[in-house]
Amino acid sequence: MAPSSYQAPMRGDKTKPDTQSQTTSSNLAQGQTTVAKLLEGKGDAIYSVRPSDTIHEAVNQLKEKRIGALAVTDEAGTLMGILSERDIVRRMADTPGQTLPQQVDALMTREVVTCTPDDYLIDILKRMTEGRFRHIPVVQNDRLCGMITVGDVVNYRLRELEYEALQMKQMIVG
Ligand code: AMP
Asked: In its keyword annotation, does this UniProt entry include Membrane (predicted)?
């Protein structure tokens, strides 16, 4: 028979609090890695076009640099918009055979969601998922200082996970 002080667990009782390694955010964002950290490895190259450039010039650059989006900047380097391959594909469907001579500013997205070097990668991933885009320009003090993609964030996290797995193996093996 159970001792009289024993209380049988009831439905809804919280037995133990989650440990750090059990929470979703800790699983996704171990180490709270920042955009600045990712840029250290990737570099801060920014490929850009001017609003008055043609889509022909933009697609050549997308092809040469093997990228999916370009920052649109003015002469001073200020961010005016973003032009993604998706914008071009959509326009090609709307204006077949007439897209390449059009100007970038007719296709670009003007309301650009940006981030700063101090933002956490997990928050950037959420922003991209919610906004349904795969690129985020990095801006600090009104100056464009990088571009990160969903692929960059996912690859970075995968490498972190591999490293963490290796550390755990070493702890177990001794
Ligand atoms: P993407 O998935 O990044 O190739 O872009 C999909 C659509 O979102 C295109 O219309 C882009 O112009 C737009 N877009 C891409 N990145 C951003 C961003 N950071 N902020 C706002 N719109 C964006």
From this structure: no
Half-sphere exposure of 114 (CA within 13 A, CB side): 22
Angstrom distances, CA of residue 59 to CA of 45, 83, 111, 171: 18, 10, 21, 50
CATH (domain of 114): 3.10.580.10
With a threshold of 0.85, does the pTM exceed it?
Answer: no
Is 117 among the domain residues?
yes
108 CA → ligand 1 middle, Å = 9
Ligand 1 center to 78 CA (angstroms): 17
Range of the domain at 59: 32-173
pLDDT in tens, 38-97: 999 888 789 999 999 999 999 999 999 999 999 999 999 999 999 999 999 999 999 999
